[in-house]
Amino acid sequence: MGRLKVKGKAGAAKNYTTRSSAVKKLQCSLADFRRLCILKGIFPREPRSRKKANKGSSAPTSFYYTKDIAYLAHEPVLKKLREHKAFAKKLSRAIGRGEWSSAKSLEENKPIYRLDHIIKERYPTFVDALRDIDDGLCMIFLFASLPSNARLPHELVENCARLAAEWQLYVMHSHSLRKVFLSIKGVYYQAEIMDQTVTWLVPYQFTQNVPADVDVRVMLTFLELYQTLLSFVFFKLYTDVGLVYPPPLDAKKDENGAGFNALSLQDSSRDSEPPQPNLTTIIEGRHITGKVVRQTIKNINAESVDSADVEMSNAEEVVEEAEEEFVLRPSTSDKTVNANLPTLQSLSTLPQTIMTNLFSPYTFFLSRETPRGVFEFLVRSFGGRIGWPSSSGSGSPFDETDPSITHVIIDRPVVEKQETPEQRELRLRRKYIQPQWIADCINAGKILLEEHYSQGKTLPPHLSPFGEYEGAYIPSGEDAEGERVEEEEEEAIEEEADVGTPAEERQAILNSVIAAATDDPTSLRAAELAAEAAGVDFGDFDAKMKKVAKKQKNITEKEIENAEQDMNKMMMSNKQRKLYEKMKYSNKKKDAERTELESRKKELKKQKRKQT
Amino acid sequence: MPAKDLAGRKSTKRKQIDAEEIQSAELQSNGVLEMLSDEEEDGDASSDDGHVDEFPEIVNESSSEDSDYDEDDEDEDEEDTEDTEDENANESGADSDDSLHVFPKAKTIISRITKQPKTVYPEIEPNYDSDSSTEDTPNRVGDVPMHWYDDLPHIGYDINGKQVLRPARGDELDKFLATVDDSSAWTSAFDKNTQSDKPLTAEELDIIRRLYTNENPDAGYDPYEPTTEWFTGKGKEEIMPLSGALQPKRRWVPSKWEKQKVMKIVRAIRQGRILPSKPKTTSTSKFDAYAIWSEPSSSVVPPLPAPKPALPTNAESYNPPEEYLPTEEERKAWEALDPEDRERNYLPQKYSTLRLVPAYDRFIKERFFRQLDLYLAPRVQRVKLNIDPNSLIPKLPSPSSLKPFPTYKSLQFSHSNGRARCISVSPDGEWVISGDEGGVVSLWEIMVGREVKRWQFEGKIGALAWCPRSDVSYFAVGLEDKIHLVTPPNVDPAVLSLTQTVLAPTTLPTAPATPSTVKWTTPASATWSIDTPLLTMDLPASSSVPSHFCWHRKGDYLASVSTGGAQSNVWIHQISRRHSQSPFKKIKGAVQSVLFHPLKPHFFVATQQYVRIYNLSEQQLVKTLIPGIKWISSMDVHPSGDHLIVGGYDRKLCWFDLELSEKPYKVLRYHSRAIRSLQFHPAYPLFASSSDDGSIQIFHSRVYNDLMTDPLIVPLKILRGHQITDGLGVLQVKWCSKHPWLVSSGADGSVAVWCS
């Protein structure tokens, strides 16, 4: 007999805290507690026994680890939140008394919390952070496309848009985009950075409105965290490849709708001092005259190696330049110093080189009805050149009449119209493809035939590049299977077709006789007689008989095996049996799903054939 | 900034209140007569006094700070004026005829000293005449409440003490007519003292008007008198101090302490401890990035990353293969489901071109739900088993390698009336006796199934058991309150004679010291025949049908259990001594079954939930087994004596290793209905169980001498062939001792032999 144990002093009762007691302990409001939980990544836990954790009560509550809450109690952000509460009181008092100057000074010294320590805590290494930016990217891209209003200040939307553009620039620059999927929800992208796959979803360019039942406060708190996280991640990514972060923003271009082209990538190694002045002038670009801009562009052009392409935008040029340097570096630099670098690079880039320059021989032109943001990003991250009409935004490196254009991405039906011989010549020289071609090429990792995707044609289905679970229905594997199915179908159709002929009748009799006859020799004999009476050839009968016997043998063997297994099941323990049943259930469900899809496919095919 | 907003709103509200106060103050000043202290606070007593003339000059300054104070003042004023009014009324009533002034006429003269005009009132002479109130007032009661005189004919007394009679007052109509006729009626007031109306004088009316318009009641009062500068102005400056005390030093010496305090702050500012004005930070400073991962991280283990959402499948494509599109029924089913129950949160759709894809309306909502999941949902780490489910099935030797065991029904013997409840196989394994509920016991050959002999008893047969001795041949038949010992026909004469001597010895053994309630009777030797039992034991009355028999391996003891009666009876009958005894005086629970241990002097007793093992020679409990079955139906012990199987009506079968524990080594549940009967094969490593689901399950059960090896139990075969009647299936199974053959009896009245 050990020491008597006092109830509620150890175990689950002590390890778990309910939410209300946590709030009481932290002495903050519920809203602040929620904010803290979001920022610190603390989530409720499910105790093994709710009753034990809640002192015998089974009321529905959410539980947190007591240690998590104790950890929150020392949080600097919590302190700041309390300070903010005091500040709000002081400010309201000052305003109520009409003490404007003191209110102003209070406002100036408003407590602001920073989240860098939280980022560092939650993601001790860079890879940890990189692994977890999926949700952040989705949110950034969503908020970048939202209209700003009283609840969403425009600075926030602008910052999101800036972060989104920075990310896209980086992905393009590092050629790390791998997959793209045009879904009904938006466009899924998958990039591979430092061996981590990052998947993000970008909504199509429509005005989203925030539904009334969505708590924007929660979303904004998350967004705050994600903005901080992403800015740190981008900083690391940019500085690792030797780029200046944040990339300077050209306000004029931004105003003209240049999208991510408004940001320009700058190599930090080349101009370690210039970026600062550059940055300031360009950020205050609204006040800068066009002359100055032209001059700076000229300066940069003069510096750049490749000055042939004058029409190319500043950003484009810098990107290309960086690329070239990136590739050239191993050859130019001292080999002894970078002995390990090239090997590492070559290792990491070996599989990439096949894919990343997929579109490099081509020049694309976007038709005005295609979303520029998506396809510019896709084409450029795979090395292609792309231009667009001015209605899609400024900064196109070339216009529609450029002779170098090889493909036109077009998304409208074919319209017959009069055209001059020049236009005709241009049209013939170019390939007109639908936007899905780009995505399918990227996912396939090769240039697909343009025929199936040409303007106005019915597109082949667009499949998910992310794959399905193992053993799922694969729609692309139809070729081999399809033929087999066809054969079977043909047989069936034939059978159906000539039921009326005497030969068919005979066949039917034979089938019925054989079905009856397989068990014992007497009935076999009777069957033979019946077959003879029906006028069936004996050889035919024999062959069929053997086939049926074989089939039946197979079936019986299988049955025996199954029966044995069924019997062995009774020796399973309860736990194992439950697990087994569960697995069987899920497998069956998957199978049912697959067979359902397959049968539907068959049906569709049949219908199509009937129509033709 | 909600706080700011709030504050702002408060301030505006405050301003509003101020404005209202001002307004009300104005109103007060305008309409004094209407003023009631209650209405002041409402602030909307204003509505109905638009007719009042405005006297803006009277509006006293009403800043927000001292408006309250003003109000108080005004209240007092008001009361004062009312008082005076009353007085005036009285007075005017008193001296109505000689038009006395309320106040003596004032004169304005130029002061001799100040050279300023001033009002001078005439001197009051302090004689009788000066007091106007004493003059000719007929009623001298003074200031008493006049309602004291309400019921009296007079209204008071005059100076001489004579009653002043109440003046005649007309009715209401007269009053009204008076007001109509008399043009001065509206300027007259009721005088309580004389109980009659008195016209007001012009001065009094003037005072009322002034009060009404909130003027000073004194007609001669000038509110805009020029100020008289006594101590200010040119040439009137105060030169001399008011007091002659010395000026304190602090008036002209700068404070040392103040200087120290200021210097402290100055020093702090110089040293940079205090920042007088922080440098302005830009709005984006909150997200300023730096190389956060360049310094080493703490050793604290980071939290597990949140699970990533599932990647989209083909069905989510804007242009999926057609087979993914839902049919009309699927669409309806999807729409009918609650959003939480849906397997997918979207319906697959197909668009011919990308241009036609609309915005996804639930985009924000889905992001929001993802975030709710991230911070509100408890997370549990689960190990996902990615194995073939068939690998979970234990690998057992194939039944075909464990032959022989019964596989098919070789013959069937059927009882025509009722269920065949019990069977027994002769020790040599050639004969079977089976009994049914109609009282018929049939003896038949196991090889051919031909009935050799049939006995007809009264009542149903509850149990049958063949004596295991090989030198004698008889069997016990359990009937209502009776046990018969019967010899089969066609027995070797030597065996028959030995049987007869065993069952009916010529010299009966001596009766035991304690007489038993069971009577042993043998019919006279002349009447012996094959049809009648050689020996009959009469169990005590109301002990019901014996449901279970068990022979000791030496064939001398027969244990019987009868469950149906008022109490369950366990008897052990000793044939050689012709004596029956009940081993237990009292037993907890209803006994279901009993067994003799094959080697040791142990006795197993199964009650409803427990199996108890008694040592018969030492007369004590050895062990209690807890099978965990709700209701035990049957049990059997392995021929080695170390293992026991127990079957229950709740479909469970428990295998006990008697040397191991009181809990079962293995619990199996494979029958779909109650287990009725179990038996180990005496020679082969087999056991069988029968159930109400109409099936018999054959197991291979190998028991190893090695204590370390667990017994091997392999299910071999399910035998089906008995019909289920009235919810009862196979009632009893018995093994044939020499062959791996099984005999089973069913509720349908059939007895089947299953051969290998």
How would you describe what is shown here?
Chain B: Residues 1-140 are annotated as: Disordered. Chain B: Component of the NOP7 complex, which is required for maturation of the 25S and 5.8S ribosomal RNAs and formation of the 60S ribosome. Chain B: Pfam families: BOP1NT, WD40. The complex is a heterodimer of chains A (612) and B (756). With 612 residues, chain A is α/β, with parallel strands linked by helices. Chain A folds into 4 domains: 12-111, no CATH class; 117-352, no CATH class; 357-453, BRCT domain (Rossmann fold, 3-Layer(aba) Sandwich), CATH 3.40.50.10190; 499-611, no CATH class. Helix content of chain A is 57%, strand content 6%. Chain A has 25 helices and 9 strands. In chain A, the strands form 3 sheets. Chain A has a 4-stranded parallel β-sheet with strand order 7-6-8-9. In chain A, β8 (407-409), α19 and β9 (431-433) form a beta-alpha-beta unit. With 756 residues, chain B is an alpha+beta fold. Among the domains of chain B are: 108-212, no CATH class; 402-755, YVTN repeat-like/Quinoprotein amine dehydrogenase (Methylamine Dehydrogenase, Chain H, 7 Propeller). Chain B is built from 9 helices and 35 strands. In chain B, α1 (2-30) packs parallel to α3. At the A-B interface, α3, α6, α7, α8 and α9 of A face α1, α8 and β32 of B.
Could you tell me the radius of gyration of chain A in angstroms?
35 Å
Strand tally of chain B is 35
* Helical amount of chain B: 10-25%
Give the rounded overall mean pLDDT of chain A. Answer: 80
N- to C-terminal distance of chain B: 91 Å
Unreliable stretches covering 5 or more consecutive residues of chain B:
1-100
CATH homologous superfamily annotation of the domain at 402-755 in chain B: YVTN repeat-like/Quinoprotein amine dehydrogenase
* Biggest β-sheet description of chain A: 4 strands, parallel
Family (chain A): Belongs to the pescadillo family.
Domain BRCT (chain A): 354-455
Biased composition (Acidic residues) (chain A): 478-498
Biased composition (Basic and acidic residues) (chain A): 578-601
